[in-house]
Design a protein that fits this description.
Elements lengths: L7 H15 L8 H7 L3 H12 L2 E3 H13 L8 H21 L3 E4 L4 E4 L3 H11 L5 H15 L1
Antiparallel strand pairs: 1-3, 2-3
């Protein structure tokens, strides 16, 4: 019959060829790692900072995150608050985002920069917006808006 494969082998090869065409390229991060990257509020805060600037020292990042978490200006962050955020970022959150290819971390300069999968994660973050944590997007957006004015 016209339009039908002549053999099972031909039908199988047609199915596998069409499914291969539908798969995203390997360079795109799968959905599960994106959600894992954004699964903790400190990682979301860190990603929001990448929307503001693409390079951060870990100390500056810790201070900014401590300010957001405590809903205070950065100049009011205590040493304990900054240290708590720094240790958590250094030991848990930065390595997880490095492993996912969202950020790169330079051990010598103690700075983070956006990596291969940052754009995909940041796009997902912007799409999810305040539905994850209403204060996070508000904090991040208000600071970015102030800088644009």
């Amino acid at each position: 019959m016209a339009g039908y494969p002549e053999s099972d082998e031909e039908a199988t090869s047609d199915v596998s060829a069409s499914s291969e065409k539908q798969l995203p390229p390997r360079s795109i991060l799968e959905l599960e790692p994106v959600y894992q990257a954004l699964g903790h509020s400190r990682r979301r805060y860190l990603c929001y900072t990448l929307l503001e600037d693409t390079e951060w020292s870990l100390t500056d990042l810790a201070e900014k995150i401590a300010a957001w978490e405590n809903d205070i200006p950065e100049d009011e962050v205590t040493e304990d608050q900054r240290e708590d955020a720094y240790v958590s970022l250094y030991h848990a959150h930065v390595p997880k985002l490095v492993d996912a290819g969202v950020i790169s971390y330079d051990e010598e300069t103690k700075t983070i920069t956006a990596a291969e999968h940052a754009e995909q994660v940041l796009t997902a973050l912007e799409g999810m917006g305040a539905s994850l944590d209403s204060n996070q997007e508000t904090h991040a957006r208000s600071e970015m808006d102030e800088q644009e004015d």
